[in-house]
TrEMBL record:
InterPro entries: Bact_CCA-adding_enz_type3_sf (IPR050264), HD/PDEase_dom (IPR003607), HD_domain (IPR006674), HDIG_dom (IPR006675), NT_sf (IPR043519), PolA_pol_head_dom (IPR002646), PolyA_RNA-bd (IPR032828), tRNA_adenylyltransferase (IPR014065). Residues 401-435 form a coiled coil. GO terms for molecular function: CCA tRNA nucleotidyltransferase activity. It is an enzyme of class 2 (transferase). This is CCA tRNA nucleotidyltransferase. Its cofactor is Mg(2+). Its EC number is 2.7.7.72. Keywords: Coiled coil, Magnesium, Metal-binding, Nucleotide-binding, Nucleotidyltransferase, Transferase, tRNA processing. The keyword Nucleotide-binding applies. It comes from Nocardia jiangsuensis.
Amino acid sequence: MVSPKSDSPVAADQDRRTRLLAAAAVTLGGLSPVLTPLGELFAAGGHRLYLVGGSVRDAVLGRLGTDLDFTTDARPEQVQELLRGWADHLWDTGGLAFGTVSAAKGDQQLEITTFRSDSYDRVSRNPEVTFGDTLEGDLVRRDFTVNAMAVRIAGDGSMEFADPLDGMTALLAGVLDTPAAPEDSFDDDPLRMLRAARFVSQLGFTVAPRVRTAMTAMAGAIDRITAERVRTELDKLICGAHPIDGIDLMCETGLAERVLPEVPAMKLEIDEHHQHKDVYWHSLTVLRQAVDLEEGDPDPVLRWAALLHDIGKPETKRNEPGGGVSFHHHEVVGAKLVRRRMKALKYPKQFTEEVARLVYLHLRFHGYGKGQWTDSAVRRYVTDADDLLPRLHKLVRADCTTRNKRRAAALQATYDELERRIAALREQEDLARVRPDLDGNAIMELLDLAPGPDVGKAWRFLKELRLDRGPLDRDEAEAALVAWWKGQKA
């Protein structure tokens, strides 16, 4: 047999495969203090143990975390017995009925699931759990071939790579494909369609043509999935390294129409008489630029606000005389739409309010002009943003997508100036806690009031006065309050 030339695509592919597997072996070798004794426990009990799924995929890609997934021929009760006394913690999070035992050893979180060969009723997502007897039967039921690779953890500490569905080839190509026909896979579990978009975002992969076709034809099946599970996948997607690709796949296949319809709705038609910026791609660009401004871990609040900041535009679009287009008050409408969508997806209330407030405030800066704001306006900007101010800074900067370099530089310079003014005011006063110069007790004593609505009105007057004029000494505050109260009584 003639060997392929060293510079041929086949040789290059084989070389990359060898290097990735070698690197994965080194990575897993670093976990031998956990993997070796765990393999010994199962071997001594007469059972097989495999590292499987995303853990193998991530080991090959050099991104393995502290969560390790295993599969075994041992039944759940046997797994519990094997781990008892060895694991630092052992618990049942409701997965025992599905064959999963959860444990912790050192810094590693372990999930060990008995071989499964589930069947689905194709009405709900819940499978009829059936335990299997073979690794191949377990792997073929998994969502994508890149998640259907395994590593045998033997009792002597050795490890053997198993890839009966050729997931490694798909991984090398950066392609997501299903072990079985995608129509059958998605009919069994429609959430897998959303997981495809999530993996596109996290891994930078593409989907196989047949997977894209099935996703498009079966997008409506996602309605069988609960809002909570959809939300989990969306959060993982938007916090991925390539969220734009994942979101665009959702929109192109029709999935977004079912779970996040406000995003594809931003694909507004542009006619020859009334021109406007492509709101959909502008929003994806803002998301990308917001990601570039992050410091450290992904910020889901900032990312959601960047993606959704203009979702109020479709409802507020107006064609103006002369060929212009306006979107008056789209930030107000957008904030309402954010609350409605996130409530439907069962997001926590505080998270929803943070995203909605950023959407509501994202246009405020554009009233700054060339620095015409008074100190009072700057105080209000800071106060209204409150603890979201750092995120608002990033969102406003990311919202500049003009191709006019001079205009883009001018906008960034203007925002630099606003931040300098905020910093200067902070040196003079505590902008983080803009409160009235008199508290409720002082108000009641000065105006001879009992607790009630009038005290609240007086407090709000002093708060507004504080925002307008900055810190006042006590005599000034009392004089202003007394004069205001006389006017109220009159």
